[in-house]
Amino acid sequence: MTTNEIHERLRAKFGEDVGPLSEPKVDPFCVVKAERIAEVARFLKDTPELQLDFCEDVAGVDQPKKNVIEVVYHLFSYQHRHGIVLKVEADRANPVVPTVETVWKAANWMEREVYDLLGVVFPGHSDLRRVLLPDDWQGHPLRKDWTEQGGYHGISNERENPLVELRRLDEKARAEAAALAPKPPPAPAAAPVPAPAPENKA
Amino acid sequence: MRQTPGEYFGNVGRTVTSFWHGLSVTLSYLLRRPVTTQYPDRTPLPVREMLPPRYRGFLEVDAGVCTGCQACERACPIGCIQINLEKDAANPKQRVVTQFDIDEAKCMFCGLCVEPCPTGAIQHTREFEAASRSVRNLVFRWADPANPFPVYKVDKNAEYYPRAPLGSLMRAKLEARDWAAAAPQFLPPEPPKPPAAKAPPKPAAPAAKPADSAAKPADSAAKPAPAADAVTAKVAEAAAPAPKPAPVPPAAAGAAEPTAPSSKPQA
Amino acid sequence: MEKLILRKVPNASEEMLLNFGPQHPSTHGVINFLVDTDGEVMKKAIPDVGYLHRSIEKIAEQVGYAGFMPYTDRVDYVAAMFANEGWAIAVEKLLKIEVPPRAQYLRAIAGELCRIASHLVSTGTMATDIGATTPLVHALREREALNDLIEALCGARLTYNYHRIGGVAFDLPEGWSDRVLRYLDHFETLLVEWDRLISYNHIYVKRLANVAVIPREMAVDYGLVGPNLRGSGMDWDVRRDVPYGAYPDFKFDVPVGRGFKGVSGDAFDRYYVRVLEMRESAKIVRQALEKIPDGEITAKVPRKIKPEPGEVLSRVESARGEMAYYVVSDGTEKPWRVRIRTGSYLAMGIIEDVSRGLMVADLVALIASLDVVAPEIDR
Amino acid sequence: MNTPASVSPTPYAPKYTPKWLVGLTLAAAIGIPGAILGAILLLTPIVQPATLDAITREWLGQDPATWYWRPWLGAGMLALVAFVLVNFGAIFSGMCVWYERRVAGRMQSRIGPNRQGLGGFLVWIADAVKMLLKEDLVPADADALVFRSAPYFVLLGFALTLVVTPFGQSLIVADLNVGIMYITSITALVVVGVLLSGWASNSKWALFGGMRSAAQVISYEIPAGIAIFVPVLMAGTLSMQGIAAAQGGLPWEWFIFRNPAAFIAFFILFTAQLAESNRTPFDLPEAESELVAGYLSEFSGFRFALLMLAEYGNIWVLSVIGSILFLGGWQIPFVGNEVYANLRGTGVLPSAAWFGLQAVSMAVLVVKAAFLSNVIVWLRWTLPRIRVDQMMALSWKYLVPAAFGCFVVTLLWEIAAVEAPAISTITGYVLTAGALLLLVLFVRQIFRNIAAVQGDKLDLSNW
């Protein structure tokens, strides 16, 4: 069964709650209303001739332009060797998507990861905890507007960049060399010198 | 659980037979030659010379054939190469490289910088031993800021580029260095007033994380500093495999072979 | 905060909470298992991952398409070739590039050699976790020989970075295929010795057979992939069923666990499926070397990799099962979102439910038989 | 390399062990065990009460019955011998560690220790020195007193067994008439020490290890105890020397081949003693991949060294027990027990020829014990570890019934042997021939293994 046929079955069952199939740029997908996703998933898995028993991937994508967070479900059927991509769009302010863990156990950990990294809440999930990040982590890093918190429990995440520092030393030495007669690069004085931004970075 | 007599005595029998095989295999290894080599001091050759020619060791730059095109700098995903070009004070037409630094501590030896190089000036050597007391000493400087080297003019109909034998320059550097040498003393950090001056340390920060496996979750997803965008944008445009059949990708593998015939993998 | 609460030892009870890791000889990598034990029997074991999280998916949004290739090495550094391949295939799908056949074959050769190397680590650590020290060293010895071959091919032993978008980086070195064939002759005979050394050892069989059984439906439901899925009796292999690259050209069997020593889906099946897969990979490498075509090793790729907006999922059969790259492009030079779906991550999801009622020693066997690799879990 | 710059300026030359170190290694390898065994050879006959009495009477001119210092003389001599024996245990365990690492390396296609002296032989001395220099760490929440004392229980359980383990025909500190029972009871001290160390460490891994060890040792005492009674029945005595004297120097005169039940009982005893000394496949108490180091987790420095000493010393003890009970012990072929008595001479001290013969008997015993130790090491690097429940099942469902069966069969066998002594002799010939056949087949199997793997060949270089 092709993706189009699966999509038609969905439209027949759920009507307008299942959006149109996107024009196949690379992989076509269809947008499903968030509140119906659990039923859609149950339908896709239990219908014998669909039988999408393999929840291959549950991924979250942050779309600030559309002000939504997409949760993408890649479904596949070992039996019939066909698949379909579903998308659920959740509001960025408070993203809430019903869990499909009850349909595919595989969704358990993948939804946990989506919650962890994008902050999508899945009501009904058995244990919605952070997976990859520490429990006391602030924010959800895969959101586009996430800003790095400086260090973690006093552990700095800054590393000096010797390349830049060496350039600063060179600038200083050459400035002095230009000022006075040429002499070997002196031991660094304490005076901070404003280094111009490297041109390839600016 | 209950056992039939067959299972009961079958267990004994299988145990005996399987031990017979296993013990005979292990004992037979006493009569075979071990495969380990006694690194570093009991090998027939220095280990660097037993490595295959394509081995991706420390990066080496031959200033003699460097065109100063900065393709390697753009190709590097983590920005461990830094090149600074200026006009020569003597004749303004001549551009000179005042800084060509490679931070081997940050380099992940992916070889992406070697491919876009038009002349094969930057290549991976088979050197891998540069233990150093200070990580700052792992920055290899291929241009002397005091007297910068002029960029190399490529002439179109040259058969080959006069590149020094691969590894010779790096070997010389390593022979000269002292592993316990004092680290260069850096200038104190500046006041964060000019944003441009604060920016440079940033871009490497997010990208450098996977290089050191000790990365903390805290490092997850550093916000891309504006400078990072600039760097990585250049990466994307330049890191594609060089389409023109310049002697580069062959040179990456081939340059070592003529110069190092005895370096065929011994294994 | 629940994880922190879990760490509290329950007082005034017969039960004991073991922090099985993060530094433990038999958690492969840095994983923590919160094991609730009653004597030698486990109530349950709760995996606690994330110690190796390096935010590779976030990094992908900041380095370009080509620049991300070295990072994929770090996703699963025991079998980096497949992460490379998955990323390359995904971007090629986005760019609609046709990879030249010689590059396809080179990818297959490198991948299968890498699969053997990875399975060697898996089976060897399995034996060590069960308590036999010698097989691991034998396996690592063979892996070193394979690493020498791969090193001669792509210049690195661990983080290969061999694939490029549109092809591969290097062609075969001269005399290399003869070395590979000579090695495979040695390796196939050595697999027989391997079975005699450890696979059929009665203690080993008794430790693994009928232990940590995962029925087929459960395996599918929990999204197990690769050898773990096949060990549960599911006859599925992406290389054969969703063909990619040069795999349609090769003839090879897909070993499936049908209860070699116990019931289907037990730890021994998952282990032995890997042993059999090594043989199949050797067969594939032989065929590929035999009929590798001439020609280019890289397709024509624009210097600026700038795919049109769209999204794609690429599936490759990694050593730890199906590895899927979900890439969303917004038309710029940097991917908008990269999602790496790895086998180990989902395999961790099943441990809590399978571990109920096992013994502590069986937890070790379970972890080893699922062949989880910490960096692939945490990415 | 024809690129001059890429080779190091100094021509490359591999560095190998210097000559003087080779000499030192050989001296240590021969001198240390030679000295300790020689001391045992000389001292053990002297500390026998009879000899001491004779010395007191003849040389000191005192009546041993009344002389006040006589007990102190005996005590002093015994203290000296005890010192020698403990040192022997330490040296044996040290050398066994080196040997095990070396053999393990070879079995794993490695070289093993190779830096400290020739073949890395001095590594065990270096290890000992290192362990003595390490900090003697006691965990903060550990039960300090018990934690500190536990290793001594283990050491005691090992060292006391050396009192009745013979080194030769009369090279034994005290030939107790209940020698073998004494050993089985004393070795129970080891489990006390292990249990204490597991408990006192206040570490979950250590606790696991201690409990496992307790369960294991106690349940394997039983098959071991029953199996021991097979040679006891055949010899009619409990004394180690008596059991050894009841056998002969030639293989078909050994108890293991004298009746089929004994043949099985030997393996039962061997297995059970493996379990008692926590060796693979029974190393559950220190299962590295499950319990990080088991009851050893929290120990360091000197106490760790003591535990290791006891563990490896036990290898010697159980090898000696096996060879004494079943493999003819110190019996020299074609040398009957009366020869020793004839050579003894009438002097206060035995004659030199007697000492020579004792040395030969010691050599015979050491060779047999070394062979068994070798087998133990070899097993460790081949076999996986069994699970706890399987360990219990093996003991109670397999070994105990089998051992008891052997016991009963031996009982009947001995009754029959009284009627027809020939059956033991015939069985001896038959079983010896069978064992030889197995040996030949095994060697053949080994060479087949090497030939089976493409590209591997018999190669003894780089030993």
Summarize the structure in words.
The complex is a heterotetramer of chains A (202), B (267), C (379) and D (463). Chain A is α+β, with helices and mostly antiparallel strands. Chain A contains 4 helices and 5 strands; from the N terminus they run αββαβββαα. Chain A has helices at 3-14, 37-46, 107-118, 162-179, and strands spanning 18-21, 30-32, 54-63, 68-76, 83-91. Helix content of chain B is 29%, strand content 10%. Chain B has 9 helices and 6 strands. In chain B, strand 2 (81-87) and strand 3 form a beta hairpin. The radius of gyration of chain B is 26 Å and the shape is elongated. With 267 residues, chain B is an alpha+beta fold. Chain C has 2 domains: 2-48, no CATH class; 66-378, Cytochrome-c3 Hydrogenase, chain B (Orthogonal Bundle), CATH 1.10.645.10. Helix content of chain C is 47%, strand content 12%. Chain C has helices spanning 2-6, 56-60, 69-73, 80-95, 101-130, 134-154, 176-199, 202-208, 216-221, 227-231, 238-241, 267-290, 343-354, 360-370, 374-378; strands at residues 16-20, 32-38, 41-48, 163-164, 167-168, 310-318, 321-329, 337-341. Residues 1-7 of chain C have low confidence and may be disordered. Classes of the chains: A alpha+beta (202), B alpha+beta (267), C alpha+beta (379), D mainly alpha (463). Chains in contact: A-B, A-C, B-C, B-D, C-D.
How are the elements arranged and paired?
The complex is a heterotetramer of chains A (202), B (267), C (379) and D (463).
Chain A: H1 3-14, E1 18-21, E2 30-32, H2 37-46, E3 54-63, E4 68-76, E5 83-91, H3 107-118, H4 162-179
Parallel strand pairs in A: 2-5
Antiparallel strand pairs in A: 1-2, 3-4, 4-5
Chain B: H1 5-28, H2 47-50, E1 59-61, H3 71-75, E2 81-87, E3 95-103, E4 122-124, E5 139-141, E6 149-150, H4 168-176, H5 195-198, H6 201-208, H7 226-238, H8 248-254, H9 256-259
Antiparallel strand pairs in B: 1-4, 2-3, 3-5, 3-6
Chain D: H1 19-46, H2 49-58, H3 70-107, H4 123-133, H5 144-159, H6 179-186, H7 188-200, H8 204-235, H9 240-245, H10 255-258, H11 260-276, H12 301-325, H13 337-344, H14 352-380, H15 388-419, H16 422-452
Helix pairs in contact in D: 1-3, 3-4, 3-12, 3-14, 4-12, 5-7, 5-12, 7-8, 8-11, 8-15, 11-12, 11-15, 12-14
Count of individual beta strands of chain D: 0
* CATH fold field value of the domain at 44-155 and 168-177 and 223-250 in chain B: Alpha-Beta Plaits
H and E order of chain D: HHHHHHHHHHHHHHHH
What does the radius of gyration of chain B come to?
26 Å
General form of chain B: elongated
Oligomer: heterotetramer
